[in-house]
Amino acid sequence: MKTVFSRPQALTNKPLHYCPGCGHGIIHRLVAEVIDELGIREKTIGTCPVGCAVVANEYFNVDMQQAAHGRSPAVATGIKRVLPDRVVFTYQGDGDLASIGMTEVVHAAARGELITTIFVNNAIYGMTGGQMAPTSLLGQFTTTTPYGRKKELQGSPIRVAEMLATLEGAVYIARMSVHNATHVMRTKRAIKRAFETQLEGKGYSLVEILSTCPTNWGLSPVEATKWLADNMIPYYPLGEIKVAAAVEGIN
User: Relative to the CA of 251, which of 82, 196, 197, 232 has its CA 20 to 30 Å away?
Assistant: First the structure.
């Protein structure tokens, strides 16, 4: 019998705690597959802050460091500067990165820190109860916007990838999704390109990944996947946002 599926070495065998339909499990596997394919498991260090992935250290079979809410880029910067031969990544949600952690990610990108950020955008606070995030869409119902997000009250959703792409130190910025098999494969290629950008010493890299949160969206997993495609992608267009001249894009 031919083996067509096996667990990446960069993942532990601990069962995931994520809700049914959540994209974190898929994204964890993609990151782990890239680490394995690049042969960097023994020298990779990840950081995970507060959020649904706060216990990602139990799932990634690499050295992991937990960080305070939003502070992963600062922690990762310290690790990379002390251990420049390591491959360092942050794994952050939108409530973490785009709100309390916005300062850290902006300045890490501006400085061109040689770290990679995996940014999971599900347009809501997941772990803490479904509150509005900086990325929540206009009209989106959350526990803190029970009548829908309104531009005149809460402003417009922040397009993090486009904002960071304006900074000189950011050399590879992409936005992908895991809502179907085709986009899962594209996301993996972008993650690999982001890690390669770090390995080649070219600057800061980030891959924003649109994902679902069926529990806090109040939808079934299937309905959540359709909601992402119909509502998130039009506002958060997919693709490579910035590929610096010295970095080759994905096919």
Answer: 232
